[in-house]
Amino acid sequence: MQKIPACRHCAAPVVVENVTLMKTTRCLLAILVLSLTVSVTRGAPALRLVDKGVELNTSGMGQFILETPELRFSGGRGEKPAATLANDTLTVQYPSGLTLDCTVDAAAGRVACHFTGAPAGAEALRFLLYIPLKFNQGGKFAFDGQWRDIPPAKAAQFLHQGSATTFSVADPLGESITVATPGGWQGLQDNRVFDWPVYVYVYHYNFMGKTEGWFGFTVKFGAGQTGKFLVDRFGQSATKDFPGKITGDAELKAAAAAEQLPPRAGPALDEYGGLAGSGARYGLPPTGFFRVAKAADREVLVTPAGNVFFQLAVCGLNNCDDYTRTRGREHIFEWLPAADDEQYRTAWRPRDPGVFSFQIANWIRLHGRPYSYEDWTAHAAARLHAWGFNSLGAFSVYSNALRRAHFPTVDILPDAPAIPHIPLGPTRAPDPFAPGFAAALDQLYAKEIAPRAGDPLLIGYFLGNEQAFEKIPTVVPALRADSPAKRELVTMLRDKYTDIAKFNTAWQPAKPFATFDELPDAQLFPTTPAATADMREYLVRFMDAYYAHIARAFRKHDPNHLLLGSRWTPTTAKVEEVTRAAGRHLDLVSINYYTHRVDLDFLRRIHEQTGKPLILSEWYFASGERGLGGGREVRDQRERGLAYRNYVEQTAALPFVVGAQWFIYTDQALSGRFFEGFNGEGANTGLVDVTDRPYAELITALRQTHARIYDVLFGQQPPFAYDDPRFNGLKK
User: Fold this and answer.
1) Residue 129: CB partners within 8 Å, gap ≥ 6?
2) How much of the chain exceeds pLDDT 90, in percent?
3) Which of 715, 413, 375 is nearest to 562 (CA)?
4) Sign, Cα dihedral of 569, 571, 573, 578
5) Residue 608 and residue 602: Cα distance in Å, rounded?
6) Global confidence as pTM
7) Which residues does 684 contact at the CB level (< 8 Å), separation at least 6?
8) What is the H or E stretch that residue 638 is in?
9) What is the DSSP string of 652-698?
10) What angle do CA 416, 420, 426 make, to 5 degrees?
């Protein structure tokens, strides 16, 4: 079996579907609960506590979390909590002093909640449960047993809202979850109105003036239909028909045979994909490595040969998002080969039983031999070159075939796992105040970075992906004394206030502290203006330490390549303390910028605060016409092409944007990418579909943009603008 390097994008803990049930130790007598009836036969549904709330594990629908609630006050103010899971109890604490303790009786399907210390003005606890967008492909929902179809297209913000006691959701095969509540306001919201591809169930538990009390939930799991499937034998939707859907091997092979690669359109390029002759025109000497420079009053990337290079890249040229988890939900697939089937052995993920790629299976059908990553990437490189792409983006695995094709690439810096990390939602970041952090980076980079320091095809390294640094001011105060970052915060506060009484006055904790020695293990809530200012000061200290350590170690072991930034989300990029710190230490900055309407002022502000060129490091447009989900949804493949042109050309015309990286080469698995469990992303991200067919209308459009990109870059042609209300509100 061919050994393929691991992709850091999916090198994440694999979600376990059937978890060990946790037993509650708290008496549930007289608590408002109902009973659980389990009628599912394919694996046992489960209920357990996790640090984010109550996790619901189904047999085939996946995992759901009823999240720790926000405390709502009259007038609309809200408080977010800090939660601790210990001794089978989830303790949720709020800045105003409210404490919520939750336990689970998994065998009975009961969730019991006890609250104390509800402050004056407290109105309700707001619970959320997120539901994947793919439920719009035949799923249903119900309040108090009144079932309705989940509409496939975005419409109103709320699909339903009002007073109810139960909420149910079912997948297209009919498997369901029902949550029974004490009653009150609840609704199902379509978050696509906020450009977020997810539904969310919202429930408000109203205190009704009580400062202490009990309430509870129960969960009932329902079985689905048998004899029906969600995914056909080619990895396509089994519940949705669409033009060109593959129905047999002959059609699959005929489509592959009919593909003709057009000659690349546009001006002559140098051996690295840069604009040939531009180095001499703009006075850019060759250095043997990619670098940043100024040309014609704008910032540009420069190839090792000394020519202007606007990065037109594709992320994720790799077998990762095409893999899906099959074990535990085999019933949703029309066909799966046996794990020891010699013909399809290479379509199963190595060393990860129960994870399968229909994309690879279709490659095997086409070529009649075991899958070869080298062969696959050789074909992909030829396609990408013909389509006008000039490099690879993040999460790509570099093959010998790609190197022979002289395709430049980027990488992500390795992590130092022995160093304590700060949890930042779904991501994390190493603690820059941890003893030995600098030494650990030095040792790690000497081993993994230094050997590639002389590679001219390597553009540079990202530092991470979507690390939510904006959460540092709320996450670090809630950590304990074993956290170096928390100890650094306490030291800063002790040095500033010197007297604990002054600290109590500034921070106004619900219960004043007697000494500074209590702070390291206390949950601190920065809710006052003074506390907020302190945490902004701390965030500067944190970010400077983080970026400085990495930059120092990196440049010691690799002085030739670029530090490309942290692939921020827009939320992170709005935090000035983060952007200015990055500008002090990095060569470029990067943002994963998903949008219909490009906010040019927002991008200008990032550039002004960092003083560095900008790469748009992840984005795509998706259509649901084939049953796949989408992030930034558009109507069809034609509109995907128009959206691509609008995004790339509008941003390339800015004098500080030096590249754009489309996410990704192939569609994600219809049933969700494997490392996120059963409810992983399954979107129309690809330039090609699961059967390896290019999306012709998208390819035609992006080739037009790629052919004229340098004319747009230097103002010789105006950027394409899509005349549509979702896209044309560009800020000047």
Assistant:
1) 64, 65, 66, 67, 179, 200, 201, 203
2) 81
3) 413
4) negative
5) 10
6) 0.89
7) 622, 623, 624, 626, 628, 629, 630, 640, 667
8) helix 637-652
9) HTSTTEEEEEES-SBPPPTT--GGGGGG---B---SB-TTS-B-HHH
10) 85
List, for residues 347-388, the tens digit of each pLDDT value: 999 988 899 999 999 999 999 999 999 999 999 999 999 999
CA–CA dist 625, 241 (Å, integer):
9
Are the C-beta atoms of 612 and 585 separated by less than 8 Å? no
Name the H helices within 349-390.
Answer: 358-367, 373-387
Distance of alpha carbon 122 from alpha carbon 41, whole angstroms: 43
Q: Is the dihedral of CA 632, 200, 422, 602 positive or negative?
A: positive
Q: Give the number of residues written for the chain.
A: 732
CA gap 477, 487 in Å, rounded = 10
Helices (H), 405-483: 437-448, 472-475
Residues 398-418: tens digit of each pLDDT: 999 999 999 999 999 999 999
Rounded to 5 degrees, φ, ψ at 730 are: -70, 135
Tell me the β-bridge partners of 140. 149, 170
Task: Give strand ranges (E) for 106-145.
Answer: 110-116, 122-132, 140-143
pLDDT digits (tens, 9 = 90+) for 574-609: 999 999 999 999 999 999 999 999 999 999 999 999
What is the three-class DSSP state of 32? coil
Q: In what order do the strands lie in the sheet with 614-619?
A: 391-392, 311-314, 657-662, 614-619, 589-591
Instruction: Determine the residue type at 162.
Output: G
Separation between Cα atoms, residue 41 and residue 225, nearest integer Å:
11
Q: How many helices (H) and strands (E) does the chain have?
A: 16, 33
Tokens standing for 588?
């470029």
User: Which top CATH class is 249-413+564-713?
Assistant: alpha beta
Going by C-alpha positions, the residue among 72, 73, 69, 42 that lies closest to residue 58 is 42
Intervals of CATH 3.20.20.80 along the chain: 249-413+564-713
